[in-house]
Amino acid sequence: MDKKDIKKVVLAYSGGLDTSCIIPWLKENYNNCEVITVTADIGQGEEVAPVHDKAIKSGASKAYILDLRDEFLREYAWPMVKSGAVYEKKYLLGTSIARPIIAKYLVDIALKEGADAIAHGATGKGNDQVRFELGIKALAPQLKVIAPWREWNIKSRDDAIDYAAAHNIPVPVTKKKDYSMDRNIWHLSHEGSDLEDPSNEPKSEIYIMSQTPEAAPDKDEYLTLDFEQGVPVAVNGKKMEPVEMMETLNEIGKRNGIGIADMVENRLVGMKDRGVYETPGGTILYYAHNELENLCLDRATYNYKEQIGIRYAELVYDGMWFSPLREALQAFVDETQKTVTGTVKMKLYKGNIITAGSTSPYSLYSKEYVTFGEDEVYNQADAQGFINLFGLPLTVRALMKQGKLK
Q1: 99 is catalytic
Q2: Domain 178-296+338-357 class?
Q3: How far apart are alpha carbons 168 and 121 in whole angstroms?
């Protein structure tokens, strides 16, 4: 599709620096095309309120704002929690897991509005360009994708700030405060500025969804989480829908300094990147879910599911949510979760989560079998034969090395 054929574009719009610049840039470079913005409210908070008016004033003909918080948690975050997916041992995938639902609704609005293309503000150096575009390819490959960062003459965030100023577009950053941040109800990420040097400790004032452990109270706080088939359903005995639950856990996690992760990660596009992530409620959920799985899953299933979690995390990170492999892994995960039902009690203290007890009607723990006291169900003499057979390959190899194997 040639530029001249582009008459209507749907833009993934956050109201931040990059997407604010994109509206006038699209009109200048794509035949004064009609621009329709789509803002997915997945829990950005106060960032959403001014978006509609700002988009219209910047030249958009329509500005959709979609409240997707419940669907985001129920259909994307909760399945990920059940999988145990963690990218490179630290990252709870807060930005990554949000991209599929945004791509889905960009496509829905584009088809509804008869748009020719979808535009996004992801840079040519990052992972999000891949995530958005793979989602679009999986759902509507006939739509053209416009990625201004791969086309325009703006080469840096400073250039973008200058472009916005020249077009009278107010933006929420300055050259002195220019962290690249992404926020939703699951997490908040920080990149850029002084964080580009991995030797720099993050400044305590950057934290918004959490706080440093030093700032947390000098007293512990107990918390219980209930799960049904791997899905969180209640906090401290109170049943909650996903949004209320996430907001509650974020508040509890924040006041106890939970969920800060500072890491250098491997981007899909080949470079290393330093990010600081705040995931207070998500960190509590992951911890509690794992504790319940320890109680309810047999050893072989638990160990194999750990491997699945690594691959699942890579698929989410790489933008392959709508892939056949992710869907197949989800089927495996969901099967394992049929008995992951119960209650986990935790003690939170200055950034730490400490197990304080777990119960489940499907618990595989048997005090009768494991006790150090006298029992009538386990014959300890049976262990000798088990060890002999389990260690037979080691015995044969040792005899071979000693030249005694016949």
Answers
A1: yes
A2: alpha beta
A3: 19
DSSP E strands, 218-293? 221-228, 231-235, 238-239, 260-266, 272-278
As annotated, the binding site for ATP includes 12-20, 40, 121
Positions of E strands within 138-209: 144-146, 180-183, 188-191
Say whether 18 is catalytic: yes
Is the CB of residue 241 less than 8 Å from the CB of residue 250?
A: no
Q: Residues at the annotated binding site?
A: 12-20, 40, 91, 96, 121, 123, 127-128, 131, 180, 189, 265, 277
Cα–Cα distance, 363 to 345 (Å, whole number): 15
Could you tell me the fold of the domain covering 1-165?
Answer: Rossmann fold (3.40.50)
Burial 359-392 (b: 16+ CB within 10 A, else e): ebeeeeeeeeeeeeeeeeeeeeeeeeeeeeeeee
Instruction: Please indicate whether residue 180 is annotated as part of the active site.
Output: yes
User: Residue ranges of the domains in the chain?
Assistant: 1-165, 178-296+338-357
pLDDT tens-digit map of 162-180 = 888 888 887 766 555 678 8
Annotated binding-site residue numbers for L-aspartate: 123, 127-128
The residue annotated as part of the active site, out of 58, 83, 116, 128, is: 128
Q: Report the distance separating Cα 27 and Cα 6, nearest Å.
A: 10
Catalytic residue among 58, 83, 180, 210: 180
22-25-26 Cα angle (round to 5): 85
> What number of CA atoms fall less than 13 Å from residue 253's CA on the CB side?
29
The predicted-structure confidence for 36-77, as pLDDT tens digits, reads as follows 999 999 999 888 999 999 999 889 999 999 999 999 999 999
Q: Do the strands 144-146 and 117-119 form a parallel or antiparallel pair, or are they unpaired?
A: parallel
Contact 240, 281 (CB under 8 A): no
Domains 1-165 and 178-296+338-357 share a fold: no
Residue with tokens 């392959």: 320
Is it the case that residue 349 has pLDDT exceeding 90? yes
Instruction: Choose, from 18, 116, 182, 273, the residue flagged as catalytic.
Output: 18
Annotated binding site for L-citrulline: 91, 96, 127, 131, 180, 189, 265, 277
Of 69, 99, 183, 274, which one is the catalytic site residue?
A: 99
